[in-house]
Structure formats: C-alpha cells, structure tokens
Amino acid sequence: MTLRIDMHAHFFPTISREEAERADQPGVPWLAVAEDGESGMIMLDGRPFRPVSRPLWDPVRRLEQMDAQGIDAQLMCATPVMFGYRYDAPAALQWAQRMNDKALELCSVAPHRLMALAQVPLQDIELACREASRAVAAGHRGVQIGNHVGPRDLDDEALVRFLCHCAQEGIPVLVHPWDMMTDGRMKRWMLPWLVAMPAETQLGILSLILSGAFERIPRSLRLCFAHGGGSFAFLLGRVDNAWLHRDIVREDCPNLPSSYVDRFSVDSAVFDAGALRLLVDVMGEERVLLGSDYPYPLGEQKIGALVENHPDLGERARRLILGGNAARFFNLPADGSGDE
C-alpha cells in the first residue's frame, strides 16, 4: 500500500478573544466557535476574517477525515494570519512559543500521524533561530515561514541568515505566501488569493535565485514552497530567456535560473493534471511533495486524488509524490509515522 503524507495542512487553535487581547499587539487573531461546535470564524481586528470548520482546531475530527481519505500522516502548520510578523519582537516570540506549544498539544492525540511545523518571530532573526531550534527539539518537524516580512523578501541578508541556520541545524523549511501584494485593485472574487498569492511564491523563489542567495545558503537546506511554487514553473522559460539576454537579470546570478530547481521542492497543490505534469517535468518527481492546503476550501478536497489518478505519472512518481518524498524531506520513517 502506498504511503500518503500530506505535508501542507493548516490548523488554528481555539484562541479566545481574551487570550488575543492579553497579547496586547495589533491584529492578534482569535477563534469564535459557533454554538453547534462544527463551524467557526477567525476574527481579526474585531471583524470576521474567514469562516472555518471544526477539523481546523479539533484533532479527533481531523483524524476521522484523514481516515476517510486514506491519509497516513499530516504535517500541520499555522494559518498564516497567525504569523505575528507585525508584533513587537519579544511579544512575537512569546506568541510563537504559545502557538507552537498548542500545535504539539493537538498532535499529542496521535503523534505518529499528526505532526507540526513551527512558526517563528521572523522580524528578529536571532529570536527566530532560537525558537526554530527550541521548537524542533520539543517535537516539531520543521518550520513554516512567510515569503516576506514587510518589504523584505527572502534574499534579505537577515532572512538568508535564518535559512542558513536551518540548513546547519537540519531544520526543514516550508515557505508559505501571505500578506499578498495588492493596492486595492484586486477587490473581489478572491483575486488576491488567485493572482497575487501565486506571484508572491514566484517572487520568493526568484529572489533567492537571481540575488545569488543560493550561492551563500548551504545545499543541505531542505526548502519547500507551497502551492506548487506558485507561477514559477510556468514562467521559468521567461526567466531563463531574460537571464540570457539581459545583463541586469544575471548580474547577481552566476548560473541559468533553471539550474537551481534542485535547491528546493514544491508541493502538489495545483489542482490540474496539466499543471501537475508541467510541475513534475520542471522540478523532477523527487521534488514534488503531496500538499493539500487542508482544511480550507481552496485546498484539494480529495487529498491526493490528482496524483493518484494522473494518467501520465508512473508508479514510482506516484509513490514518491504521495509520501516518499515527504518522508525523506522531514526525516520520517518509511511508514510515515513520527516514530524514529
């Protein structure tokens, strides 16, 4: 039986309004659970931010759905609104520690099947490095970071230093887009999620490639980008063409951009057979990991179905993408459990 590990799923703990207020920082989110206990609303700045359902905060319900979908293990990470990158650094550290501890509490229900990726106070790199190491020592399987902190993209010297720390400590990193670029033009129809979110991910990847940051980051770094790497794979030919013909594109990047695809992985959340085929062609079958974005509506509703039913993927590729690649990326045993 093929191992199935969903490495991109989200959680949001039952943070009360009072707990959020005690943080005494701007925009601390909290969860309003409906009377029926089955639905809820993430609240932000006193306003409804996103409707959610019980599996987001209830590990027992999550496990029931994993069983129904044949998922052996799932790695959970913070809903990006929880990052707290706008908080004062000391408060952000305390917040990250609380959220990371809550994540492990959720996982404790079935630690061999539910595992967590930590969040860190990325606005202060020393604190971020410290919390990444503490969280992994406490049981987290890696860290999730946003693709930028304010105007600082991943090529920022401090963020590169954090990635180097993770490489040296053997800490896997998932990069998730957040706080999407928009000046108000993308007002409706979830356009920030449909247009800007893929662009944010491509921006994160290209900022590492074209800046020369990958020349300074150890090759041992296990780095993965969510949502299939956004628009990266589809537009990589355009980037190579620009590098070949415009010196301002290659001034800090010594090698053809497409030669860096072996420096990172992506998840499989692309929702289209043609897109997945292109993604595997560009990245290679060993650098695409099953990721669903569960339990949100923009995620894959039948986790792994796109990979399982793809007409052009061979048995080896299916086996790697559904679980083998994630097991290797996160140092999990062959059965996908959290037991070493």
Automatic annotation (TrEMBL):
> Is Methyltransferase tagged as a keyword?
no
Q: Name one GO biological process term.
A: secondary metabolic process
Q: In its keyword annotation, does this UniProt entry include Glycoprotein?
A: no
Recorded hits in InterPro entries, A to Z, give:
ACMSD, Amidohydro-rel, Metal_Hydrolase
**Amidohydrolase-related domain span:** 5-332
Cellular component per GO, a single term: cytosol
GO MF annotation, one: aminocarboxymuconate-semialdehyde decarboxylase activity
Biological or metabolic pathway of the protein? Secondary metabolite metabolism; quinolate metabolism
User: Which keywords are on file for this protein?
Assistant: Decarboxylase, Lyase, Metal-binding, Zinc
* EC code: 4.1.1.45
Subunit structure, per the record?
Monomer.
Q: Which family is it part of? A: Belongs to the metallo-dependent hydrolases superfamily. ACMSD family.
Name used for this protein in its record: 2-amino-3-carboxymuconate-6-semialdehyde decarboxylase
Q: What is the lineage of its organism?
A: Bacteria, Pseudomonadati, Pseudomonadota, Betaproteobacteria, Burkholderiales
